Amino acid sequence: MTSSLLLAFALMLVLEGLMPFVAPTAWRETFRRLIQFSDGQIRFVGLTSMLIGLFLMIFLS
Length: 61
Known about the structure:
Blueprint: H1 2-22, H2 24-34, H3 39-60
Helix pairs in contact: 1-2
């Protein structure tokens, strides 16, 4: 179980690092737009992301 969690964490880091490595200007612009969102909008994006991830974990396992 621990090795699976570490592998998942490693994959997350790889995927998170792709955008700033491949397109740093687009990544920076995305964060400029993100800071203009309200707290509620950011929470909604976070909740949606968590629910999609949870659904995929349940569906694929």
